[in-house]
Specification:
The complex is a heterotrimer of chains A (298), B (340) and C (292). By secondary structure, chain A is an all-alpha fold. Chain A contains twelve helices and two strands. Helix content of chain A is 72%, strand content 3%. Chain A has a two-stranded antiparallel ribbon. Chain A is globular and about 65 Å long. The chains are: A mainly alpha (298), B mainly alpha (340), C alpha/beta (292). Chains A and B meet through helix 4, helix 9 and helix 12 of A and helix 5, helix 10 and helix 12 of B.
Chain lengths: 298, 340, 292
């Protein structure tokens, strides 16, 4: 193993933290839905894919940037409403694991439809942010990663404020706490869920654009969901702050372990190390760092 | 769970099926039928039986079953390759035991985790195994891409290397293990599985050994899934790489048990039949309707679309799966003598 | 292991050797179950404060109180779901800071649950049989083969289940899925499952909740029969005051986590603190005893 270079370590760490922010972006979409309806939406990754594909395909067909963005946004809104109506409403009283399986099926449907409509080729995506690394204190940081982090931070601030300070946000939290009570108090659960899914769709669009610009828009984009799950496990399924902190820990942990532990195993441990971190964590704290501890009643 | 009283004795259907499977099909079936439809169907069914024991009966969600299939396949390959004179059946059993050991290890989290959290932890098994089998070429006898070739199938001096032979080989193993699984489900242990699924706390209070029951579910299920993986490699594909046991495969097994019917041994077969057959139908229909535009990419995506829709449909309309549909159909078509 | 303690009431008897009257202490059996200074809090909220309870063998002991008074928490403490911040649970002379739930059956304790905890995927018979699970020692291989020890245990369990099914009048439904039965019958199946192991102590969490008058009468009869025929000690949480007063030997009253009365039904009903907190304004005539 090479001599420990603090600058290199810092560079890997920062790179990891910023990569982690990208994970958090996807995780936030999960949290929105879980917070309001206790559903773990496995289809979030496919929503990211659909959003990115729609945007990029429109762009390639000559539709101007902002029009493409708006149309993609509209598509995600429609998707959210459709999902609530056709999948969620019929399954409303079923146990959460049933709903999880339904989102599994949903992810297949969305992936299939997205690529049947727009095709299966890979698309490049240029958002106008060039990825030139620049130097800060001797370590190289990617400009793109920084912009992504900034956008994520803005989204978190918006959403946290939304949940805490608006009436709709309050309704969201009530629905998450106790569906039955929320219903009894007069909150329109279907409207809340639809809003949550639409919001998740918007988050998926933002994540799709950033991830697509980084990795290219292709089928494997939907696999970001697999990176978001350990993040959620760490941060708690219902906490936005948890999604950020979890993302940072997973991102940094992954990159650092790849560089410093990976060589002992021949490399490539990134594919599963995040899960190991999450697993070890779960055994110590089964509800995540910020998640709500469920009290089990007999 | 319990079949309603029927005017035919309970053993009639299984015996009839076995008669057809052993006696009729080998005489009339084409090698395409055996190689492309029946043998994969059998391997997938067995994997689904295993997963159903764990997820359907014992309520422990696992999204990593393909990893255990992979372990079974690669372990069987290595035992057969490296231990001279070891009978093929012994390799299979040992492979199953290796899968069992791994299953118990990755099942330990179930002692503390439930629902989604458990599902996520089973994904750890999925990714870790895929990586390990690809990374360490020892598992594939130093093949650069991790590919293994199935050995010749010789048991008690008989060769099972033709397409009919491989079919019969798989059939027999599946029949034996399925029979044992069906027996298990009717014992107190099987009922303990259901108790832990339905109300773990009450089970604990009564004195059902919850921890042991969960680990046993993982152990038995992993054994069966491991053997299924070995069958998949040895009897069906004959050439296997770790990527063939990816997350999609795990999801496929989950879909089989949902569509077929959770907590039902028969359900595994119904679900596997549907999943083995519909891609072929889809491919025929697709090329008929769309002609040249129906390339492999379109086929793949249509399959995803149809599969996902089927899952959602079953979860909404018939959560007890094809088995329940079948039982209802039977009751309607064959009314009881005293119950028209 | 002796259940006898030195604590006792002296009794006057004739000593045969001297033909004189003497005072001798008759040993009194110590209680089957005792809650000693139980204090239970959930994140700052005190559910139960400094609660004492003794339950003698063969007694039917009720715990009553307004909603939220902490009654279910007490049963959950006895079941080992919660560890009280202070205090101990004594079961059959053994002292526990937290009762080990997995050992409850071996300690001779069984319980029912307020929200029904039947195994919906099993039939009535299978639900009752599994109540005997703690004593099944054959492993799964033996059970699959179905001979020897496994077979004996199975036949034993079926026989015992049959007895309890008879006892609780469930003969019409043993093969039906437990989840498919009407509510009243489900409650009875849960009781059957609890009784099949002939527990020493039976905890009943609102056994009459949601039942019709007829069902309540039947359930009362069964509970009393369980005590009379099997000698089971019963601890019961219930809201129906008429039932409680008619069925119980002693009643403890909880209010806001504290015990405000403890004694025979008559004593408790006359207790002013209980009336103020729970029973309402006292009438001149005693409450009707509908359920004798």
């Amino acid at each position: 193993m090479p001599d420990f270079d603090p600058l290199f370590f810092a560079e890997v760490l920062v790179g990891g933290l910023l990569a982690g922010v990208m994970y958090s972006l996807v995780a936030i979409g999960f949290v929105l839905i879980y917070k309001t309806s206790r559903v773990l939406n496995f289809a979030q990754g496919s929503m990211v894919l659909l959003a990115a594909l729609t945007f990029v395909s429109l762009l390639e067909r000559g539709v101007p940037f902002w029009a493409s963005l708006l149309l993609a946004l509209a598509a995600m809104v429609l998707l959210g409403l459709a999902i609530e109506r056709t999948v969620l409403r019929p399954l409303v009283n079923k146990p959460p694991i049933t709903l999880f399986m339904a989102t599994l099926g949903l992810s297949y449907v969305i992936e299939g439809v997205a690529q049947l409509v727009w095709g299966t080729q890979v698309h490049g995506l240029d958002l106008g942010i060039d990825d030139k690394p620049f130097e800060v204190g001797g370590i190289l940081i990617s400009k793109f990663d920084l912009v992504a982090a900034g956008i994520a931070a803005a989204m978190v601030a918006l959403l946290t404020g939304f949940f805490r300070y608006t009436r709709i946000g309050l309704a969201f939290r009530a629905a998450a706490d106790d569906q039955f009570a929320a219903f009894a108090v007069g909150l329109r659960l279907t409207r809340i869920w639809a809003t949550a899914w639409v919001a998740a769709g918007v988050v998926a669009l933002v994540a799709g654009l950033l991830w697509g610009a980084r990795l290219g828009v292709q089928f494997s984009l939907s696999f970001v969901v697999l990176k978001a799950l350990p993040v959620l496990v760490l941060g708690g399924f219902d906490s936005i702050i948890g999604a950020i902190v979890g993302g940072l820990i997973i991102g940094a942990g992954e990159k650092l372990s790849e560089v410093y532990i990976g060589p002992f195993f021949g490399g490539g441990i990134e594919s599963w190390f995040a899960y190991v971190i999450a697993l070890v964590f779960l055994l110590v704290r089964p509800a995540g760092l910020f998640g709500q501890q469920l009290v089990e009643s007999a | 769970m319990n079949a309603s009283a029927s005017r035919f004795p309970r053993w009639l259907s299984p015996v009839a099926l076995l008669a057809v499977a052993y006696g009729v099909l080998p005489l009339v079936g084409s090698s395409y039928l055996f190689e492309a439809i029946l043998t994969p169907f059998l391997a997938l069914s067995l994997a689904a039986v295993g997963l159903n024991l764990l997820t359907g009966y014992a309520g422990q969600v696992s999204l990593g079953s393909a990893a255990f299939m992979a372990v079974g396949a690669f372990a069987a390959y290595n035992f057969n390759l490296r231990v001279h004179g070891l009978p093929l059946l012994a390799s299979l059993v040992l492979a199953g035991l290796v899968a069992t050991a791994l299953g118990v290890v990755f099942g330990l989290p179930s002692l503390r985790l439930r629902g989604f959290y458990l599902a996520v932890s089973t994904l750890a098994a999925q990714f870790f195994v895929e990586w390990a089998l690809t990374k360490f070429s020892w598992f594939s006898n130093n093949n650069p891409s991790g590919v293994i070739d199935a050995p010749s199938l010789r048991i008690f001096g008989f060769s099972f290397d033709s397409s009919i032979g491989r079919y019969l080989f798989a059939l027999t193993i599946v029949v034996v293990l399925t029979g044992l699984a069906q027996r298990l489900v009717d014992t107190q242990t099987g009922h303990n599985f259901i108790a832990v699924r339905d109300n773990e706390l009450a089970a604990k209070v009564i004195g059902v050994p919850v921890l042991r029951t969960k680990l046993l579910a993982f152990a038995i299920s992993s054994f069966i899934i491991g053997v299924a993986g070995a069958l998949w490699a040895f009897a069906y594909l004959r050439t296997v790489e770790p990527a063939g046991f990816n997350l999609d495969r795990s999801f496929q097994i989950v879909f089989i048990i949902i569509i077929g019917g959770l907590a039902s041994i028969r359900g595994a077969f119904f679900g596997a039949a549907l999943l083995a057959v519909f891609p072929l139908i889809l491919s025929r229909v697709g090329s008929y309707l769309l002609g040249d535009r129906f390339d492999s990419g379109v086929l793949d995506m249509s399959q995803r679309l149809v599969l996902g829709s089927l899952i959602i449909f079953f979860l909404i309309a018939e959560p007890d799966g094809l088995v329940a549909l079948w039982d209802r159909l039977k009751r309607r078509l064959l009314p009881m003598p005293n119950n028209p | 292991m002796s259940n006898l303690t030195a604590k006792s009431t002296p009794v006057s008897i004739v000593d045969r050797s001297t033909n004189k009257e003497v005072n001798r202490p008759i040993p009194v059996p110590s209680p089957t179950l005792r809650l000693e200074s139980i204090t239970l809090s959930f994140g700052g909220v005190k559910a139960v404060a400094d609660f004492e309870l003794t339950v003698d063998t063969g007694e039917i002991r009720a715990i009553i109180g307004p909603n939220g008074a902490g009654k279910s928490s007490l049963l959950n403490v006895i079941s080992g779901f919660y560890r009280p911040q202070r205090g101990h649970v004594w079961i059959d002379g053994r002292k526990f800071a937290q009762v080990p739930t997995q050992q409850l059956a071996r300690l001779g304790v069984a319980r029912t649950f307020q929200n029904l905890a039947l195994f919906k995927g099993l039939s009535v018979l299978e639900n009752v049989v599994i109540g005997w699970a703690a004593v099944r020692h054959a492993n799964f291989v033996e059970q699959i083969v179905g001979l020897g020890r496994a077979r004996r245990e199975r036949e034993d369990a079926l026989a015992r289940a049959g007895e309890i099914i008879d006892f609780l009048d469930l003969n019409a439904v043993p093969d039906r899925l437990a989840g498919a039965l009407p509510y009243g019958l489900q409650k009875r199946v849960e009781l059957a499952r609890a009784l099949v192991a002939r527990p020493k102590i039976l905890l009943l969490d609102e056994p009459m909740a949601g039942m019709t008058v007829t069902e309540k009468q039947e359930m009362t009869r069964f509970v009393r029969a369980a005590r009379d025929e099997f000698g089971t000690t019963v601890i019961l949480i219930e809201h129906d005051i008429g039932i409680v007063m008619g069925l119980s030997d002693r009643v403890a009253v909880l209010d806001h986590g504290r015990k405000i009365a403890d004694g025979s039904p008559a004593e408790v009903q006359a207790n002013q603190a209980v009336i103020d907190a729970y029973l309402g304004v006292a009438h001149d005539d005693a409450p009707e005893e509908v359920y004798a």
